[in-house]
Amino acid sequence: MPSFRLRCCAALLAMAGACGQGAHAQATRLDDSSSPRPQINSDFRNAQMLDPNTISLPFGHVEYRLATAAYVGKQARIYYVIPLAVAGLRSPMGMQVQWRSSGLFQGGMGRPGDRVLVWSGVVRAPWITESFDLQLRLDQRQLQMGLGGSLRFESYFEIETQP
User: Fold this and answer.
1) Does some domain include residue 115?
2) Which residues pair with 75 in a beta bridge?
3) What is the pLDDT of residues 31-69, one digit of tens each?
4) What range does the domain containing 59 cover?
5) What is the distance between the alpha carbons of residues 76 and 119, in angstroms, rounded to a whole number?
6) Residue 60 CB contacts under 8 Å (≥ 6 apart), including other chains
7) Taking the mean position of all CA atoms in its chain, how far away is CA 145?
8) Residue 132 — pLDDT band, cuts 50, 70, 90?
9) Angle (CA) 153 156 158, round 5°
10) What is the pTM of this model?
11) 3-state DSSP: the chain helix, strand, coil percent, rounded to 5?
12) What is the annotated signal peptide range for this record (predicted)?
């Protein structure tokens, strides 16, 4: 007969698996196709050196227009997702994305592959428009771009509804 400790560990693992499956099953990518500039492209002319290996690269205001009509009246969480693969970057540890929100969403930071909670509440409108003031911190040793190359990625938003 399995020990009490073994049964507890098995039960905890089963619960963790069930929670993880439920959370990811409800996550849906929000349509942001009407956003003016969804893809982020680097312009190193505005870069500032923070130390011998780190560059700060401001992107300015990026506006997102999220289609939320299917979720009006529902309790939800919205996440900002930074893609794991970033063209021009060797490792996710070589880039940190920081953002300040223009109002509705929370500011924050993350690395490629991160999914960061930016909003929680009841969806009240068919569209949510939000702007982020984006800035990157880059480790120059992790860049792999040729002459004239650029760093490109497209972050997106996911929504999870709650009962």
Assistant:
1) yes
2) 122, 162
3) 998 888 655 666 677 788 899 999 998 877 889 999 999
4) 29-162
5) 8
6) 133, 134
7) 23
8) very high
9) 150
10) 0.79
11) 20, 45, 35
12) 1-25
Domains in the chain, number: 1
Residue at 112 is within a domain: yes
Q: Summarize pLDDT for 84-115 with one digit per residue, the tens.
A: 998 889 999 999 999 999 889 999 999 999 99
**Residue found by looking up tokens 């969403």 in the block:** 105
User: Letter for the amino acid at 161?
Assistant: T
Is 6 within a domain? no
Contact 72, 124 (CB under 8 A): yes
pLDDT at 149: 66
User: Which CATH number goes with the domain that contains 123?
Assistant: 2.60.40
Q: Is residue 12 part of a domain?
A: no
Token pair, residue 38, equals 């969804």
Task: State residue 70's pLDDT score.
Answer: 96
Q: How many residues are recorded in the chain?
A: 163
Q: Count of CB atoms within 10 A of residue 61's CB?
A: 12
